[in-house]
Every structure is written in C-alpha cells, then in structure tokens.
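Per-residue structure
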Amino acid sequence: MIHTNVDLQPFNTFGLSCKAKRFATFSNSQDLTDILSERNNDELLVLGGGSNILLTQDFNGLVIKNEITGFEVIEENDETVLVESGAGEVWHEFVMRCIEEGFGGIENLSLIPGSVGASPMQNIGAYGVEIKDTFDSLQAYHIASGEVHTFNHEQCEFGYRESVFKRALKGKYIILSVRFRLTKNHKLNTSYGAIETELQSMGVENPTIKDVSKAVINIRSSKLPDPKKIGNAGSFFKNPVVEQAIVDAISQKYQQFPQYPAPNGKTKLAAGWLIEQAGWKGKDFGTYGVHKNQALVLVNYGGSKGADIFELAQQIIQDVKSKFGIVLEREVNMI
C-alpha cells in the first residue's frame, strides 16, 4: 500500500523531518513489483536503515523502505559457513546473531548502523575489516526489468567505501539478500585501532569473536553518539587516500599524525584528525554541530534542517582543503 505525504523523520538516523510525496514498504520481491507498478514515473528513493543519508529537502517522489528479513545457513563445513540474510535486517543485529551462532569474520563490524542490504553497497568497514573480506554474493532486483540478478564478489567491484552499486549501477538495482562466507575456526583481527588496548582493559588474554565484538562496541560507544539519542549518520566523510607528496608536506608541520598504508604506494589519512586540526571538532551551532568526541560525525541535536548540516559539511571541506590541500569526500548520500 502506498501512503502519501509521509514524514521521513522516523526513517533516517539524522532524525530530520522531510516529507515524501509517496511512501511504501516491501518485504519481498513481489511486494516490490506491485509497488513499482504504481510508480507513475516518480523519482525513486530506496531506504534501508536510513543511516547513510542526509535529507536536505522534501522528496517529491516515491520512497520505498526495504523490510526484507531472514537468516539462513545455506551450507557449511568444518572451516566455514555460508549465511544468507534478508537485505532489510538491521546490520548490528545480524552481526550479533552470527556471533551467537559461532560464525566469525564480521565481529569487527559490530555496532555499525544501517541495514544488511546497504553493507555491500558501501563496502562498510571498521578496525581493519571490510565487507569484501567475507562477502560471497547477493541477489538484487533490476528496477527496469523486474528481474532478480545474482552478483558475485568480482561483479560488485568493491573499493574503499564503494561498489558498483554506487557507480555504474547506481539507482538501477535494489538489493534483496546478501550471502557471507564466515569462519568457524577464527583468525581474529585485533591489531587495528585500540582493540588490543580495550581487550587488555577488559582483562581478556585469549579473546573470542564475542570478546572482539564487545571491545569494538565499547570503543565505538565511547566515541560515537547513539543515533537514538543524538541524530547522526556515523562517519560523514571518507578517510582520504593521498599521494606521498601530501604526506611529506604534512610531515613538515606535524611530527606524528595517523596514517595507514594504502594500495599503489598511497597513504590513507584520518579524516577526523584533519577536521580536528582545522578547528571543527566540537563546534556547536545550537541545533546542529560537530560531535565533541569524534570530528568525523556531524550531529542533529534536534530541530535542525538538512540544509544546515550540508552547509556545515561544505565549510569543513573548504577549510580542510585550504589547510592541507586535501578535498574530503562525503560518505553520506545527499537528497
């Protein structure tokens, strides 16, 4: 059933109030076919968890929310297990279910907001792990034809916080389900960030996947605001990948700064550090601002407009460019 003039505030983690001309939810591919048959050439916006979107204005089209659920073990052996999830499942709840089942490989991705369906689109990542590390395949609905197509790892063309669904195939498919190849004999990744330090403070000497997940949750909770309490979309900007010349230029002014090896001889820098050095961390503009504990996170304290947050992002981009010669790229989608 398609509803009209629906407020999207409950459906985006920024908590921004914008109206959709038409709105519907779907829980299977047939629902989707039925809804799209009544699209009437309206512009289309697909929502999952609403955690990677900034609504700057009312949407004069059709918004459809993915509510496809499901958790199924497709196959397993002594070493690995192939798990399929509905695209509308909450990502963190899916991670917790896998950990409870003893399936490893995504524990470092605990507490990331959003839906399972968005995870391969964004190639979400944290603490040295990305979706592409465990991704097997997905099924997606081709909007133009109504056909369901399967995409393997190679066809998704994963990059840093992106995939083919954010480039060549943007707006052409709706992800229905995702399969992950997870471990039963786990190789933990605890070297990135403060995971090892947090495990030590927890008194854990021989960590399990559950321990690593708990450490990640503790770290993220200490740095990042809960979207249920303060509107935000997590990391607003991507960490830039730069040439050595830029690293050398920064080194002339700063003896130490966060940097990580990247492919092709490049270096990944911490966008949060760059923003903080540009003086934006903790900036408060009443109803919106930059979070006090993590400069990567822009927040809606209540009552702000998406246009205000967009303009704030633009000012941050300009200041970082002026100071470091680096153009930050937004991770969040603008509507």
Remarks:
- The chain has a mean pLDDT of 92.
- The two ends are 24 Å apart (CA to CA).
- The first strand starts at residue 3 and ends at 7.
